[in-house]
Specification:
Blueprint (H helix, E strand, L loop, with lengths): L19 H16 L3 H8 L3 E10 L5 E12 L5 E8 L4 H17 L5 E8 L7 H14 L9 E5 L5 H15 L23 H16 L8 E5 L3 H12 L3 E7 L2 E4 L6 H10 L11 E2 L13 E4 L18 E3 L11 H6 L3 E3 L1 H4 L2 H15 L5 H26 L3 H20 L3
Parallel strand pairs: 3-4, 3-5, 6-7, 6-10, 10-11, 11-12
Antiparallel strand pairs: 1-2, 2-4, 7-8, 8-9
Bound molecules: glutamic acid.
Amino acid sequence: MATATAVYKEPAPKLDRENPLESMMSRFDSAADILGLDDETYEVLKAADKQVIVHIPVTMDNGKVRVFEGYRVIHNTILGPSKGGIRYDQHVHLDEVKALAAWMTWKCAVVDIPYGGAKGGIICNPLEMSAGEVERLTRAYTVALKDVFGPDRDIPAPDMGTGPREMAWLMDEFSKTVGMTSPAVVTGKPLVMGGSLGRTEATGRGVMTSTLAALAKLNMQPENTSVAVQGFGNVGSWAAKLLFDKGLKIKAVSDISGAYWNADGINIDEALAYKNAHNGRLEGFSGATLMPDPSELLICDVDVLVPAAVEDVITEHNAADIKAKLIVEGANGPTSASADPIINDKGILVVPDILANSGGVTVSYFEWVQNKQGFKWSLDMVTERADRIMTDAFNKVYDTSQKYKIPMRIAAYVVAIDKVAQTYKYRGGF
Ligand code: GLU
């Protein structure tokens, strides 16, 4: 249904710090123009199908009850049950969750897996809460959303601030409410209770395969390529480790304690060992020097920049100073829409978030399939299938960008929206 007639319009630059929903919508609008998307489908896809706001009372360790605000946004389910992580963070905001939910719809469509998009979040600071408090919060959130979640309805997963531990509590609580063990209600579970081999490293692995695919298009050799990775959590640390293993030189990494630089390359095995031995932080790591300002990582002298932390770190204020030739977005929404024209003018190739970080949800899909099959796949089977899906998606987006002469970011939206819109055409029913 795509027509090649429409002209690509750059999203209008904005002066204020954008909210992620606006950034998402301006790219969506550009892609909808290129596709010649009809008004009805545009209106349907613009709005989330469902937004649930819950207030969750939790007894804290001091005996006092605190009420937390939580969200679950279901953006769209035309391709299948909705899928997406749950974020625990002080800065969770409904507009952010709405954008993240829509990104999940596009992400699942880009990699061609049979899911819609959703996202959840709770305004909280898990770093300042005990394990018991986080457990009570997770269980209460699950009960509050028991009619939303379901193995064939809406399937949560980890995101910032959550991991296998929280997914285990969610699975247990949901199973109790439905009266049977229901592993397929959530992905990213611990291995012993139906988690998939390869899920932990899946997002970072997808970042690695996307980086190598992009380097090949740029005729750059991995062994002559330097990288800066922002964020050393699950996505950033695995991306850094797997790129390091492929022979790329990781010159800079950062975490909450600061940004670290080594012109000769950081030994990522040592950095990981240090992080694991020091409360999950790089603070005091001697294999690199602390950069005076952590935001310098984004503009340091490297070939590849991997933002793998939070939204809106590449903006109109720093985009012009970026030296990398390639940006591979491990995080969701790390680039504001206002930075897009600057990056495009500089000729930087961007592998956008909805493609670059989709390895995580791809292996989540494999976990769900294994749970439904009651069967376990080998690690080789998981990685071989995930790599193939990522490579196919990369090629499809790259070819679309060449065909319409548009940046890969807009091409990824074109691929995703086209798939969703075509499904609406066949299913009908407005
Ligand atoms: N939170 C991850 C993401 O943003 C994973 C989602 C999932 O596996 O469902 O892609």
